[in-house]
Amino acid sequence: MRYLTAGESHGPELTAIVEGVPAGLKISEKHINADLKRRQSGYGRGARQSIEADAARVTSGVRFGKTLGSPVTLVIENRDWANWSERMAAFESAPRTLKREVTPRPGHADLVGAVKIGTEDCRDVLERASARSTASLVAAASIAREFLADVGVEVFSYVSSIGDARLGEDDPLLSAPDYKPLDIEMSEVRCPDAEATRAMKRAIDDAAAAGESLGGTFRVVALGLVPGLGGYSQPESRLTSQIGAALFGIPAIKGVEFGLGFGAAELVGSRVHDAIELDRGRGFTRSSNRAGGLEGGMTTGLPLIVTCAMKPIPTLGHALGTIDLDTLEPTEASRERSDVCAVPAAAVVAEAQVAFVLANAYLDKFGRDDMRDIRSAIKSYRQRIRTMSR
Ligand SMILES: Cc1cc2nc3c(=O)[nH]c(=O)nc-3n(C[C@H](O)[C@H](O)[C@H](O)COP(=O)(O)O)c2cc1C
Ligand SMILES: C=C(O[C@@H]1CC(C(=O)O)=C[C@@H](OP(=O)(O)O)[C@H]1O)C(=O)O
Predict the structure, then answer these.
(1) 149-174: string of b/e by CB count within 10 Å (b at 16+)?
(2) Domains of the chain, CATH where assigned
């Protein structure tokens, strides 16, 4: 299963085409749009989100609520297009009043992209470099999420810090983080603890008042995975590399840690690795999950726990220095309408990216054409591994 997305941030619409979806998978418009709504929310988002009301129109690949096995196309309208149709026209000439973007923002793709494609208007770059594209990515991955739900896998995320405001947690690597989904979704920063939520909101308010922006960290968790997904024989078959690449595909993600992550580097081996135990009913298990659900590039069958670090938003009220590309004189970077913090939204995007990789890992192992065949292959695999531990 793979996707291709297209669309400029202020163009008419975003498009995602998902190819390689098995036939017979139930798809719900309600679920797709719920994910799109979750991605739009979060304290610290800018005014654009009050213009948009993201909803996907499915224009191919689904009939009577089930996939056909043909490519699925999802289209999301950009409501803001109405305000940009002249500045973003496909064929008309540029309006006389057009204000080119010539003061590139440090930390965004503006300068390097303009140098790369040789444009005199950074908008040619930033329209696609914008994380607006992550809406189409979430829509595409909603197909993967439906697949995972069908095979008993749940993917969720929560925010663990914003700036220096942190969620105090019991060690989530001893078992699975068992937060209530409602506590995460009801928090304006997608953090399951009310006090930490308040501290994170305060940090965002302070940053906004100072013309600043904030990043943070979040965890993505997947429950219900069978052991043995992924592979150990080639670099690209390792689930670790696939998930890492998918998460680094999200704008502004600067770090990805599996389980203990960087923390493992300073501990002795016995405090890092998860002793193997046998439960006669459940099969092989572990006393802890410091590996975060992956060993040797494959799922262990324990919860997958990945932590991501997001850098602060590059567009600042209190703008940094830059060079005017017309005059070549020092000046201040563009101050556009912007998010102050988008960590909660990025966590939803990361869920989507992880879901896509995991769905593909299932398809690699259990077949790709038809849901009935896939379900029975998973059932017989589960039976086989149960006999290994008897
Ligand atoms: C969900 C989300 C929303 C974002 N919103 C903004 C924004 O409003 N303004 C901004 O300057 N950057 C925003 N960013 C970050 C930029 O897209 C990102 O910093 C830029 O693409 C360069 O990132 P890179 O250096 O990691 O490639 C957002 C990122 C994400 C994931
Ligand atoms: C539009 C979204 O995020 C945008 C991501 C973004 C960027 O530079 O990455 C810049 C802002 O764009 P605008 O100037 O139109 O407000 C954000 O709003 C979205 O997430 O739906």
Answers:
(1) bbbebebbbbbbbbbebbbeeeebbe
(2) 2-388 (3.60.150.10)
Q: Does 39 belong to an annotated binding site?
A: yes
pLDDT band at 283 (very low <50, low <70, confident <90, very high): confident
Contact 222, 154 (CB under 8 A): yes
Q: Is 219 among the annotated ligand-binding positions?
A: no
- Checking ipTM against 0.85, whether it exceeds it is yes
Alpha-carbon distance of 368 to 178, in angstroms, equals 32
For ligand 1, pick from 116, 130, 338 the residue to mutate: most ligand atoms within 8 Å of CB.
130
Alpha carbons 54 and 346: distance in angstroms, whole number: 16
Helices 343-366 and 29-40 cross at an angle (nearest 10°) of 140
Alpha-carbon gap, residue 383 to 390, rounded angstroms: 11
Does this model's pTM top 0.90? My answer is: yes
Residue of 9, 84, 101 to test ligand 2 pocket, by largest number of atoms within 8 Å of CB: 9
Question: Residue 44 region, left (φ>0) first, then alpha (ψ -120 to 50), else beta?
Answer: left
